[in-house]
Amino acid sequence: MVRDSTIAPLPDTSGPPPDGEESGIQKNLTDTSESLYKEKLAELLEACRKNLKNFDEPMVTKALRLCYDAHKNDRRASGEPYFIHPFAVSMIVAQEIPLDDVSVACALLHDVVEDTAYSLEEIREEFGDEVAGIVDGATKISDIFKSREITQAESYRKLMLSMVDDVRVMLIKFADRLHNMRTIEYLPPERQLRMAKETLDVYAPFAHRFGLAKVKWELEDLSFKVLNREAYDNIKKLLVETRVDRENYIAEVVAPIKKELEKEGYKFEIVGRPKHIFSIYNKMIRLGKKVEDLYDLFAIRIIIDTKNDNDCFSVYGIVSSIYTPVPERFKNYISVPKKNGYQSIHTTVIGPTGKMVEVQIRTKGMHEIAEKGVAAHWKYKENITKTDPEIEEWVKWVSDVFEQHGDDAPKALMESFKLNLYQDEIYVFTPKGDLKILPKGSTIVDFAFEIHTQVGLRTIGAKVNGKIVPLHTKLVSGNQVEIITSKNQKPNPDWEQFVVTHKARNQIRKFQDEEQRTKILEGKEILQKHLAKAKLHVNDDTLSKFATTTSSGNIGKLHLALADAKVDADEIVTKLRDWLKPGGQEKKEEVVPKEVPYLDESRRQTGILIQGKRDDLLYSYAKCCTPVPGDDVVGVVTIGHGVKIHRRNCHNISQMQLDNRKERLIDVEWPGTEEAADYLVGIRIYGEDRPGMISDLTHVISSYNNTNIRSFSIDTADQMFDGKMTVYVKNTYHLSRLLEKLRHVRGVTSAERYEE
């Protein structure tokens, strides 16, 4: 997790004091700290008794004691003892997002494993598997990547996977971030900006997804206050200046409604609904209006003490009989709840003096879920897990993010967050009347993939409300959509330009990548068949080198061209045969040396055995084929340069054998035990040129076995890229695994060993 502050150690008081006065100061500090601990313990226990359905007091007491002991030598940037932070998080979990006693204990322990000497196993031994599992899910993963963006994405991924098993992981993270934001002023400006942006981009949208309205609003306003202080202060000032007028107007609107509801015998509460500052700012920007011109600054909420949902519609009828409703602004979230479980009737009416007033009508139970979201269920249910249908609906989208992405897809995860966390929803129906909830702006193709992946892949057309429409048509709530499919249809790459859901985009990309890989394999098979027919035996490295001399430019493009019949296979074989003939490539005349020079002591190498033993002969590795441990190798005796170590299938070795120069070849081999050295090797990568591709490639390389990159060059044309790089590897296994990981990067069509 992102910490709210740097930890500053307290002065060391472990040694003997120089005099009695110092000893007294130390004792006073200890007494004060212990007194603060007891005060906070009493405060927490009281909050738990008041708000939690079940409460294990010994467990919470033990958790606070461990938290206090673990952090007792640490302070926050504000100067207060660090344990105050986990205590504050536990109070939020106990009061503002009331969960259960396990969550309170986990909130107290959420930084212990990350920041102190206590291990997760010790937490498990003291508190059991349930607490340990939640603490582990909420603990930040190690910073194993240099890129902050990648590290955060991996952290979110771990957190989300933990959340799918226990949703309390995310709720504790909300509480943690909320307290961090409430005390953000103590951080350096650059950290404030970074934390505020992350909160606005990720945490506030998550809170929205979980139905935590109050948490979402506060996170947004606190972030906005940091990111745009001037606008925040201006709006806040205007709201303060107009507060009395707004309250008087709301009272005037409420009076006749209240009178009628009392007359009908309803038990109810009517409150003014405050508009939070960030939402006001967004609406001002979107509509180009001033604060005073926004109608929904005047808003009321009617909360009915009833379990009958139909009472909400009856109350709507009463409100509509008093004030004229605006028909197009009526929304029924009771019959069709939002994905996060939110239920309410929304309407806008024309109030006194012609001003529009937004009215929300809901039951008391609906209101609690609207304010506290999934957390509200802890008051009524036991042992909530992801198998609960209501919880599954909230975490389903998390599983979708990982449907097509593994550990190497953090950027795709972040993209999915931004696409799907915080969008308004539309409600669309199948021909059979089944409801599908999609992000606002979704198209026919998004709807098709929401039904089923195969339906999306085979979509050729659609009818909306009985009329044929283009596939890029944006849907609106209430549309009834019929998808038309064909077995012969394939996704069009252009679809990616207009779809908005992560599921549609991921499936389209996956199909295109798989299709291109299939074509490359098809082209490779075509070439191999023609080579076999011509009785021409050429290894992959030689083919890769030859491909650079063709119009295709590299082996991947050559295979694609063969599969698409853009080049003739027989013509390629003819060109290859000519290229392999003596004189077809530049050759250097070499003279057989009479003897092999020896190394002086300071220049000896220890990576190879020559003629079965480790000798003092001068040798080096050939740059034409860059051998590494695991390759079948052979030595070539040269003039003045000792023995050149080549791969046995190197083109130059094949040429020497053809030219009857075998007498210069000597046996060499790798030692039986693996050396710790790094060996330089060339890699050639071809694929789709897209934003972030270089970053993805270098991340995969550097994160696998700490592979170092020596050089990297890339050329682009026709939306494709051709990259060459040299890297250091330990052996052929290291190289093969690295190539395998590179081939799984989105958009990469080939990654092969490359000879220079």
The major sheet is characterized as: 6 strands, mixed
Oligomer: single chain
What is the number of helical segments per DSSP (H or I, 4+ residues)?
A: 26
CATH superfamily of the largest domain: Hypothetical protein af1432
What does the average pLDDT come to? Answer: 77
Helix share of residues?
Answer: 40-55%
Structural class of the helix and strand makeup? alpha+beta
What is the 3D form? globular
CATH architecture label name of the largest domain: Orthogonal Bundle
CATH topology of the largest domain: Hypothetical protein af1432
Gap from first CA to last CA: 45 Å
How would you describe the overall organization of this protein?
The structure is a single chain. By secondary structure, the protein is of the alpha+beta class. It is 47% helix and 15% strand. It contains 26 helices and 22 strands. Strands 3, 4, 5, 6, 7 and 8 form a 6-stranded mixed β-sheet that branches. The protein has a 5-stranded mixed β-sheet with strand order 14-18-16-17-15, with no helix packed on it. The chain is globular and about 110 Å long.
